[in-house]
Automatic annotation (TrEMBL):
<feature type="compositionally biased region" description="Basic and acidic residues">
    <location>
        <begin position="478"/>
        <end position="491"/>
    </location>
</feature>
<dbReference type="GO" id="GO:0015031">
    <property type="term" value="P:protein transport"/>
</dbReference>
<dbReference type="GO" id="GO:0000139">
    <property type="term" value="C:Golgi membrane"/>
</dbReference>
<keyword id="KW-0333">Golgi apparatus</keyword>
<feature type="compositionally biased region" description="Acidic residues">
    <location>
        <begin position="464"/>
        <end position="477"/>
    </location>
</feature>
<keyword id="KW-0653">Protein transport</keyword>
<protein>
    <recommendedName>
        <fullName>Conserved oligomeric Golgi complex subunit 1</fullName>
    </recommendedName>
</protein>
<dbReference type="GO" id="GO:0017119">
    <property type="term" value="C:Golgi transport complex"/>
</dbReference>
<feature type="compositionally biased region" description="Basic and acidic residues">
    <location>
        <begin position="454"/>
        <end position="463"/>
    </location>
</feature>
<comment type="similarity">
    <text>Belongs to the COG1 family.</text>
</comment>
<feature type="region of interest" description="Disordered">
    <location>
        <begin position="449"/>
        <end position="499"/>
    </location>
</feature>
<keyword id="KW-0813">Transport</keyword>
<dbReference type="InterPro" id="IPR033370">
    <property type="entry name" value="COG1"/>
</dbReference>
<dbReference type="GO" id="GO:0006891">
    <property type="term" value="P:intra-Golgi vesicle-mediated transport"/>
</dbReference>
<keyword id="KW-0472">Membrane</keyword>
Amino acid sequence: MALSFQVEESNRKRSADDVIQSLKLYSRTLLDVQALVPGRLSLALAGLKNNPLLADPSLKRLEGLRLDVYERWCGEEIQYFIPYIRHDDLDGSHAREMLSAWSEKGSEVLLDGLKKTLDTMSEFKMIMELRTNVLELWIRDGAKARGIDPSELQDALRDAINARMLAVLDNKVSKLRLVGSEVSAALGRWKDGITDEHVSIWDEEGYDAALAGGAAPFVQEVVSRLYGRNDAVSKAAHCYKSWYHVIDDVKDVVEQLRKQRWDNDYDEIEDEETIESRQKLLSKDDPQMLQEKLDTTLDRSFKELEDQIQKLWDERAGSARNGKLAMYFLRVLRDIRHQLPQRPSIKTFGLAIVPSLHEKVSAAVSSPALDEFSTHGVSQRVVAGRPLWEGEPALPNQPSPELFQFLRSLSLAMSEEGVDLWTKAATSVLKKHLSQRLCEMWDGALAEISSQKDTPKEEPTKDDGDDDDDDDDEEEKEKEATEEKEKDSKDQTPGLTPEQKTDLFTQWLFDVALLKRCIGSIGETSDALQNLEDKMYEHSKLDDEAARQRLTKSANEFWQRTHLLFGLLA
């Protein structure tokens, strides 16, 4: 038996055949010894004393001895030699003790060789085949041996095989950490404009090469662009998909274990209880243990991966490129969550980090448009569209050019970063961020304008051609007043006339009403913009509530006509 597992001298690898051959020798030895000792062996030894050895017909039939030729050359002592072998000292109990001791040592050698062979196996399919062959062989032959409980070795074989299957499962499932290692490596070699490159779905470059490979590569290229799977994201996603096959393999193994039948079809010598007990152990308990180990290992591995990703993000959340990094994390998490195992504890994988990522993405995407609007929008004190106002009282029917440009720039920026980023949750975070920043800008502008003194409306100069001296005096006074105003203007911002303020606040009231339709679709955002709208209404000095309702209606109608221009914001 031990020779079956000696591979060093023959320079060969361990294989399942070594285990099968060793088990066959073990079971065959048990059966042969029980069949021969002491009965048949004693009779055979006694039979040797009946006739001379060379007269035995079986020896004469051996061609190698050639007794038909060489027998006459043998002396009488040899020709008539009768062996004397004691045969009456073979005690049955002693033989059973010797066989029992040998079976224990033999089973140890067998199990040791089995474990060493299993250590070379890392695929569930190979382990399953070995398990089936070993157990079927022992169920067939082990039940024939008398005085030996076959369930003991059966359990030992089960334990050894199950231990290896659990170790392989733990090793394969734990490799989920390689996904985190890939993410960490991508962050380590990050290059702005290269690692975070996003190719538009409408960019023709690259499609020709994809089409050259057929329809499948072309569709894959379109899908990759649509979901923002650049090289860095694709590597992490492929790493996860390669790992996910482990779960499918384990499911197949569990299903095969449950379907296997372990009846002894060779000899009808087992009772129903023995068969049912073995069936429960091998086809119910073992797959259940494997499934429980899979579930436990999955829970642990996903928790470790989530902590690893969270740590990587926390280390970089404050960097200057946190917006691009957040987009990368979001896309990796999305691809992982797209194919999660069916486990209650894994359903929330990665969700804790998503709000923080959405905030950074929203801030990064909206920052240029907000800065531009703060510089050229809120600071603008001239109502360019005043001549186009309609109705009585005259009210605006379109937003200020600066607000329209702000919304357009923002929607383009969102599209450039990828439509896949703007889920309902991400858009809500963006709108909340926009509402907060815009309210802060307008609150500051309202406070600034309110603190300024009204500039009186200039009266037309009365023309009196009869008194030239009075005209000269007035011109001198006007010159002095102008110089005084210019001097004062160096120290303070010029004010607005009451009419200019009213027009400005009325235009802003329309802008805020339009923003309510655009970004005020969630509770907190709607409340903030509503408060801002109320402030604008108070400063606009509109005559009645009907005018406000007419202005709000105009804003709603304008949004209905133009909302498709603003893409993802709509």
